[in-house]
Amino acid sequence: MEISSPGEVVKIVDQFLMLVYESAEYHSLGEVRSVLQEASRILIAARRRLKIVADRYVVGVVGLTNVGKSTLLNALMGAELAPRRNGPCTAAPIELVYGEKLRVTVYYRNSLTRPSWSCENIEAVHQRLALMSDEEGEVAGREVRKVSVEASLPLLGNGLVIADTPGFGAAQAGEADGAHEAALKGYLKDEVSQVFWVVLADQGIGKREKSFCDTFFAEICDDVVVTGSEDWESRDRERFRRRYADVFSGRRPQFHFVSGLKGAEARRAQDAESLEKAGIPMLEARIRELVNPAGRLAAVKEGIIRLAEDLHYWLKQFRDNQQRPLSTWWRPDSWSRWRACQPKNPLKQQLMAHLGTFQ
Amino acid sequence: MDITHNSDRNQQVEWSRDVLDVLQSCGNRTAVTEIKQAIDGFLQDRFILAVLGKAKRGKSTLLNALLGRKDDTVAPIDKLPASSAISRFRWAETERAMVFFRDGRQETIAFHRIREYVTEEHNKENFKGVDVLEIEGPFPGLDHDLELVDTPGAASLHEHHDALLHAFIPQADAVIFLVTARMPLDQDELDLLRKVKAADIGKVFFAINRVDQSSETDIEDAVIHNTRLLAQIGVNVERIYRISAKQAFQGDLAGSGVAAFMQEIAEFLAAQKGRVLSDRFESRIRLAVQPVCQALAVELASSCKTAEELDSELRALHERKRMIESERTLAEREFTLAWSKAVDVYEEGLKEVKSLVLAVLTSKIEKTSVFEVSSLAKQLPTVLTQTIDDHLHPLAVRFEESVREACNRLHATYPTLNVGDVGAVAIRSREGNAVIAGSLGGAATAAAGLGLVSAGSAAAASIAATNAAAVAATTTLAAPSLLSGVLNSLGLSFLAPLTTGTVTVATPATVAATPLWVALAGPVGWTLVGIGVLAVPFSWRVSKLKLKDKITEASQEQVVKVFNQILTERIPAIRKMGKTIVEEIRLNLDRQLEQVEAAMVTARDHRPSDKEVIRLSEFANRLHKLIEDGRQGQGRISSIPTVT
């Protein structure tokens, strides 16, 4: 297999995006335009994933208030680290980071101070966090940018950071719509590389969640974790998948059916079989896959090659219907620029093989 | 389990049938027909209780439990959001399900096929074009005057569900609002509650469902959170119930909290809203009986007068009739003019609103970024109905105001016939009261001298008094304030013409019932009931609407269609309403005058024998007694404060 450095891949993705984006503007046909726009979105997401520096990869766990994010995280971590947030009161995300010792650090939005406490045990961590949401919740809640909890957990290696985000969607008394969500939105945009979207099996996905997803993380979310699905037969799971596949408008997210509750129980009981049944190890494997920098680069490359294939296939089909010459699909100047970029790079050559058949 | 107090209702129907019997033996056909219609109407008139909430809150499950079903055939339940249409459930002796389609078709289907029409699974995005399902059957839990309504969940991904809901909410008389403890009350639910509030639905039964799946502390937290938010948006909820619809559906009514919940609903229906239906019914009966009583009173009173006396009284009556003729014509013309002017203004305003709506929509679509276009396309049905509603609202309110004023004026200026104490007939007009037929002429009293006559006149007197009471009662009772507290004023002022005089010709019940019903159906009711839903295209194909210009085109087409419909269907209907009101009020006075006159003529031409006087008194006494009995029931009703 060829070796492309991350830097080269970045350049190729940029050029590819330019090609697709400019061509989308250039076309007059609605269908072509929307397909190229879709491709642009996928490339923007790929670009975003590459941009994140290699020593830190934040996986954000998002979902409506009370869907069971914390329970799921506890099952995943094998430690009751994630605090139970009762009600939608804590506005700051909590990052779980690898560290030799248990430690809680608070980052403020508008201050250099970073108060930090080392903790004896998990109980102490919880107390610290509870103290924060009680004392500072109302006044300083919006100023706390994030809280990080360091712990030596096996999953948190290789720069993986798991962020437990506050739930969105719940109405707040005495607060304008969406004020509460603003903080979370900012965090997702600035710091999170990959989103795992947690939904409750028996609640499905609603309009508000969908619009939240569209606006803030659709591009960086390939995984929907359906929790509370312990009593869901595979037939029902398939129906769930079909019903909500449209949420990602054309993209194909993976649906992971798990049970946070059963998983957490199995962890406590150290019952590997039940843990497996609750779907936790599968999810863990998926996260590990994303964490490995080389794996991530490979995933991005794989993704854009698949995209080129898809484009090729779609345009060809479309052309067959319309009887239009192939060469008209790309904007001419964008195409020349694209051709000139990194001609020797193996990835580039692979992409050209799909896109270049139009010459 | 009974949700309403059926016994009260049956008693009332029995009572009205007794009244009917007496009238039939009197041989009064007009009143008989009117009462028969009233009974039929009453038996069909139902109180609409809708179950509302977001998707997956257990609405259909609760509904099945309330209906006393053991399976989910009539209200399908699924792990995924299931209900995609509005289903209305009524009691009937035999099972029947009717599907009403958007295009006007209807089809009777077997119960096991309901699923094919009301679920997202089998009727995706409502491609079958279902408007509503009416499901009847001998549901053990459903009482005869209640209509339970299952609705699709709000704020699901299926945009047409919201559009359906939006159009339906104003029709509900009360709602059961379901939330769960697990999911804290959110913005979507608040939006839905705001809609309920905007539709002036006075009563919300707020229940936290699935309490069996949450811990006590979670439920407590939810109660606190919900109470605070409900107060914030100003929705008045007396109690937050805790139920488990699932347990109830599985048979444990008591343990699920649903039994207690149903009990409270039953009490509410019996105490408040259920009464409104019966009040309306009773007032209708009274209005039908009124002319009969008047005629009887006059006839009895006349029976002891000489032919000459009656002749002169009749002449006075004719004279008076001629006099009021011009006056009533004037009042009618004034009313007709005011009415058609209001309609003209409204019609004119529609054009402006139409272009405004078009402009608003177009700019909204234009401003939408490329990435949000497809989600906009999905939301379009709701956006359309809401934009139309919002912009039509001020115009509709203005229209209602002018129409109400016209109605009030008509009542204030229209001549009225009074039958006062002991059969004294008076016609009130702008020129003051004129007593036409003195009931017991001095000589006649002396001449009659018999116990029979005094018995008769005593009966007549009491009937007159009853009448006074009856009509006075109508002023508080006849208001069909079923749907809205705010519109109470509209309904009441229309229906309570003059409470000052003794006995007035009360508003014909039919006038109050037909046109005002439409008005009462919601703030924008005049124009939007049944039309708002038209803004939702028959079958909304989102996939075809990925482009802005196509969305613009489709929505403009839709708006134009809706406004055309208002112009071609609603406006003529509203124009006709004005005519109906005039006709009804004219007819009512005519009918009364005619009966009074007939009674006097009968008395003059065929001097009633003593036997006949006894018979008439008997009728009068029986009617009197029945009306009295009815009133005892109503004393209780009128002591209950009206919903405001």
What secondary-structure arrangement, pairings included, does this model have?
The complex is a heterodimer of chains A (359) and B (644).
Chain A: H1 6-26, H2 30-51, E1 57-62, H3 69-77, E2 94-98, E3 103-108, E4 116-118, H4 122-135, H5 137-140, E5 144-151, E6 160-164, H6 179-191, E7 194-200, H7 207-216, E8 221-227, H8 234-244, E9 254-257, H9 260-269, H10 272-277, H11 280-291, H12 293-322, H13 332-340, H14 346-355
Chain B: H1 6-26, H2 29-44, E1 47-53, H3 59-67, E2 86-91, E3 96-101, E4 106-109, H4 115-118, E5 130-137, E6 146-150, H5 159-168, E7 174-180, H6 187-198, E8 203-209, H7 216-233, E9 240-242, H8 245-249, H9 253-256, H10 258-302, H11 307-367, H12 373-413, E10 416-419, E11 425-429, E12 432-437, H13 442-448, H14 451-477, H15 488-495, H16 509-520, H17 525-528, H18 548-605, H19 610-638
Parallel strand pairs in B: 1-6, 1-7, 2-5, 7-8, 8-9
Antiparallel strand pairs in B: 2-6, 3-4, 3-5, 10-11, 11-12
Question: How would you portray this structure in words?
Answer:
The complex is a heterodimer of chains A (359) and B (644). The two termini of chain A are 27 Å apart. Chain A is globular. Chain A is an alpha/beta fold and 359 residues long. Chain A has two domains: 6-27 and 297-358, no CATH class; 57-291, Rossmann fold. Chain A is built from 14 helices and nine strands. Chain A has a nine-stranded mixed β-sheet. Helices cover 50% and strands 14% of the residues of chain A. Chain B has two domains: 45-256, Rossmann fold, CATH 3.40.50; 282-634, no CATH class. In chain B, the strands form two sheets. Chain B has a nine-stranded mixed β-sheet, sandwiched between helices. Chain B is globular. Chain B is α/β, with parallel strands linked by helices and 644 residues long. In chain B, a hairpin with a 4-residue loop joins β3 (96-101) and β4 (106-109). Chain A binds chain B through residues 30, 34, 37, 41, 64-66, 86-88, 169-171, 173-174, 177, 200-208, 210-211, 214, 232, 236, 239-240, 243-244, 246-247, 249, and chain B through 54-56, 79-81, 120-121, 155-157, 159, 162, 182-190, 217-218, 221, 225, 228-229, 232, 370-372, 374-375, 546-547, 550.
